[in-house]
């Protein structure tokens, strides 16, 4: 199957052909409990009846129309996102990386509009991951990702949580600070409330555009629509993607009202971004979230957190549990890859993060029974792998 596909992924052997809820089925009939959800994407699980019905209906009506024209769903989606976030306007694209690219361009355009066109560099945090395109890669901390494609955009990386280091970096007048309130790929590192508030204050004091990357931790995964809302912080720009269209490709770059007119016609664009099909999917996701799924995320997140804490207390190899809501991880220094592989063999799909963390990103529709089953699989696998 891989002969004509560029070898950019280390893919596992099973060929998945179907799924229902939080379960995946391979072509040989074997079933897995899916606590990865396409790396935080399939928020409504697999074959969600309402999503399937909406997409079938939309495919029979209109799948694509250029952004040179309107269709019924883009404006509604933008308005719904504004009401959930205290942001004002949205640009739609196809991925998280594209959402970051738009954010970086907006930051530079903001500085030019202020007469500060020399402010072209960026500040980002160690442990942060923002995507693989050139701009997104430039603000991604892992040097191994950047080095093969250097030189990238000028970026200063500072230690997450270090307010003084951030103050020094912002004193150099960058265009923007880019951060994840809860780092995903970097190892489920949560930035503290005090740090997020200090970052907001420092950006205000230095005229730096504050970009919150909520591609993985946003859209309700931590129990609030934005992770920033736990700190009562309003960024200048927010990027969303992964779960927003419940499995279809989407990116959204949201801006505060003061920046809503910063991009003029022709400044940026996307052929497919915000099309009828994907916007319809996103509206179904938001409908489900508002109809009670947000509360279920909180309940299942608490259940998962309690179970992981209990397991961490029983195994010396686990140094800590990290994360919030349905974005959780166990830190297992030197053993994360082994544990992830063993869990997969046991029938539980997860992934690693930051080298030492096994990451759990179940769909929002995960049930209490699913969480109990996952914890039981994890418990037996831990006993067999780490003891």
Which outline best applies? globular
Radius of gyration: 21 Å
pLDDT averaged residue by residue = 96
Low-pLDDT segments, ≥5 res: none
Instruction: Let me know the number of strands.
Output: 17
End-to-end C-alpha gap: 37 Å
Helix content: 25-40%
Q: Tell me what portion of residues adopts beta-strand conformation.
A: 15-25%
Main pleated sheet: 7 strands, mixed
**Main structural class:** alpha/beta
Number of helices: 11
Strand arrangement in the largest pleated sheet? 4-12-11-10-7-5-6
SSE sequence, one letter per element: EEEHHHEHEHHEHEEEHEEEHEEHEEEH
Polypeptide structure, described:
- This protein is of the alpha/beta class.
- It contains 11 helices and 17 strands.
- The protein has helices spanning 37-40, 49-59, 74-85, 96-113, 134-138, 143-146, 163-170, 193-206, 276-314, 336-346, 368-385; strands at 16-20, 23-26, 31-34, 89-93, 122-125, 155-158, 176-179, 182-183, 189-190, 209-213, 237-240, 251-255, 320-324, 327-331, 348-349, 351-353, 357-360.
- The protein has a 7-stranded mixed sheet with strand order 4-12-11-10-7-5-6, with helices on both faces.
- The longest helix is centred in the C-terminal third of the chain and has 39 residues, at 276-314.
- The radius of gyration is 21 Å and the shape is globular.
- The relative contact order is 0.16.
- The model has no long low-confidence stretch (mean pLDDT 96).
Furnish the topology, listing elements before pairings.
Elements: E1 16-20, E2 23-26, E3 31-34, H1 37-40, H2 49-59, H3 74-85, E4 89-93, H4 96-113, E5 122-125, H5 134-138, H6 143-146, E6 155-158, H7 163-170, E7 176-179, E8 182-183, E9 189-190, H8 193-206, E10 209-213, E11 237-240, E12 251-255, H9 276-314, E13 320-324, E14 327-331, H10 336-346, E15 348-349, E16 351-353, E17 357-360, H11 368-385
Parallel strand pairs: 3-15, 5-6, 5-7, 7-10, 10-11
Antiparallel strand pairs: 1-2, 2-3, 4-12, 8-9, 11-12, 13-14, 14-17, 16-17
Helix pairs in contact: 2-9, 3-9, 7-8, 9-11, 10-11
């Amino acid at each position: 199957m891989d002969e004509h596909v560029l070898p950019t992924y280390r893919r596992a052997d099973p060929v998945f052909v179907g799924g229902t809820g939080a379960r995946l089925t391979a072509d040989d009939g074997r079933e897995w409990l899916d606590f990865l959800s396409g790396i935080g994407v399939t928020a409504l699980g697999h074959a969600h009846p309402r999503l399937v019905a909406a997409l079938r209906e939309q495919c029979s009506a209109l799948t694509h129309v250029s952004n040179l024209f309107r269709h019924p769903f883009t404006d509604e989606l933008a308005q719904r996102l504004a009401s959930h976030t205290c942001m004002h306007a949205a640009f739609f694209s196809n991925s998280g990386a594209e959402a970051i690219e738009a954010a970086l361009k907006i930051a530079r355009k903001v500085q030019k509009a202020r007469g500060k066109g020399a402010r072209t560099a960026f500040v980002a945090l160690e442990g942060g991951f923002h995507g693989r395109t050139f701009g997104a890669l430039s603000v991604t901390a892992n040097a191994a990702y950047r080095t093969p494609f250097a030189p990238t955009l000028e970026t200063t990386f500072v230690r997450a949580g270090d307010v003084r280091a951030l103050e020094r970096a912002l004193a150099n007048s960058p265009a923007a600070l880019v951060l994840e309130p809860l780092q995903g790929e970097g190892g489920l590192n949560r930035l503290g409330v005090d740090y997020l508030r200090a970052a907001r204050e420092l950006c205000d004091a230095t005229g730096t555009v504050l970009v919150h990357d909520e591609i993985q931790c946003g859209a309700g995964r931590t129990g609030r629509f934005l992770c920033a809302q736990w700190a009562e912080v309003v960024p200048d720009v927010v990027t969303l993607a992964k779960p927003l269209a419940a499995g279809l490709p989407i990116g959204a770059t949201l801006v505060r009202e003061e920046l809503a007119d910063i991009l003029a016609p022709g400044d940026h664009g996307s052929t497919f971004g915000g099309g009828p099909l994907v916007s319809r999917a996103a509206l179904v996701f938001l409908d489900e979230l508002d109809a009670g799924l947000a509360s279920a995320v909180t309940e299942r997140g608490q259940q998962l957190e309690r179970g992981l804490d209990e397991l961490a207390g029983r195994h010396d190899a686990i140094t800590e549990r990290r994360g919030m809501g349905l974005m959780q991880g166990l830190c297992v220094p030197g053993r994360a890859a082994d544990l992830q592989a063993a869990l997969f063999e046991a029938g539980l799909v997860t992934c690693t993060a930051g080298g030492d963390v096994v990451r759990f990103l179940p769909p929002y529709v995960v049930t209490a029974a699913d969480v109990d089953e996952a914890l039981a699989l994890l418990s037996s696998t831990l006993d067999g792998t780490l003891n």
